[in-house]
Amino acid sequence: MPKPLLSFSLSLHWFLITCFLSQANAEPTQEDYYTMESIAIPENIVLEAGGIEQMPNGKVAVSTRRGDIFMVSNLLDDVQGNETFSLWARGLHEVLGLSYADGWLYVTQRPEITRIKDSDSDGRADVFETVSDEWGISGDYHEYAFGSKFDPDGNMWVVLCLTGSFGSKVPYRGWCVRVSKDGKMIPTASGIRSPGGIGLNAKGEAFYCDNQGPWNGTSSLKHLTAGSFQGHPGGFAWFELDKVKAHLGQKHEEPINGSRFHEEMDRLPHYRPPAILFPHGVVGNSASGIAPDVSKGNFGPFGGQLFVSDQTHSVVNRCFLEKVDGYYQGACFPFLKGFGSGNVPLLQASDGSLISGGTDRGWGARGGKRFALDRVVWNGKTPFEILEMRAKPDGFELEFTQKVNQAAVESIESYEIKTYTYVFQAKYGSPKVDETTPEIISVKMGKNEKTVRMKINGLQRGHIHELKLTGVLSKVESLPLLHDAAYYTLWKIPAI
Fold this sequence. Notes:
By secondary structure, this protein is mainly beta. The chain folds into 2 domains: 31-378, 6 Propeller (Neuraminidase), CATH 2.120.10.30; 386-490, Sandwich (Immunoglobulin-like), CATH 2.60.40. It contains 4 helices and 32 strands. The radius of gyration is 24 Å and the shape is globular.
């Protein structure tokens, strides 16, 4: 009898060790680092979220495509399910932007920017004042208006969808305008097609997401600057307005149909190509809300980077940007998934958590719900990720969030790379074109063990460089990357 008991004891011992090792070496998942909280929405509320803003009292304002604004209490506390919703305003027209300033909630709705307050503190807004209504609406379903937070100069940036996908029936459709707190409207940039969201980076510079369609072969993240042309000539008729002439001068030259982004970049002095092209169907189909990581380390190691939602795929991607010769370019990385509906507005709250509002009506989304409100909280554990990807004259420099295994990271077999772009054309969308396969010459780990220098033969200006890093491992735990893909859009190859 003792011998079988000993055998059973040893077998159980090795079984437990095997289970432990199996768990210890299990591939990491998003849930190991970030907790997704689905906020319960009362049954009588249709929360097709279009805007999110945190109020000074800690409540979170959420606007809807149906024209309501709700105040959500207890959203940022540690007790999930403790949230309450109260109606704060009603009767607005498709609110797709909220920004609080100087005691007012500034609201970007389809026909105007309105500022609203609750003057008697009874929990309902009672003062509504038009700030600016200088753009037109024709009644076309497509004429959305997305508004940013206020920039450091006190201006809100507003991007105005075209009438449909191709033209502009009323003033400023297909344009970006800036609006000051006192209502001064400044025509700012032409070439807008169909925005899905707008936001400021950590420096206060304006970016917006345009969606696949005419003159937009794929969805993209675009940098807005005064006087720039963003790519779609459908709103050029409004260069005839006296106000546009006063601020921007004469009409820009039109792009050549069937060209390439970088070719038009060289030919058209006002054209500013997208900072990042999002590979269509790979990282998303409809780029939308934008939020900078200004959490000072309370949401992970991604300070200063941009989180960019995708409405169709119900995900949030992460974008690292660098400026080369005056133009922003950089890499997109997959980041968060599992949101309840089609992500549109995105806000990083004061505690560092990320709040996303979702809607799928008319647009469709993978999330599965008609609408949703989700909050993502970091648990303090750093995932093994590509932190940054920088262009070099002969390749790229990668920085990781943790030290890397030297043998794995310096093996060329750990990587795959290819490039492609899209046609710059008047037709709707584009297939991938001009595909190439660069050659990775060498990979060398840096002294800090977190950076690697890749030398590559065959960088392609104007292309997405799709890099897969399936063989890279962390040094301490030999973990694979949580996300092993990067997509770098290259406009300028650095001289040094």
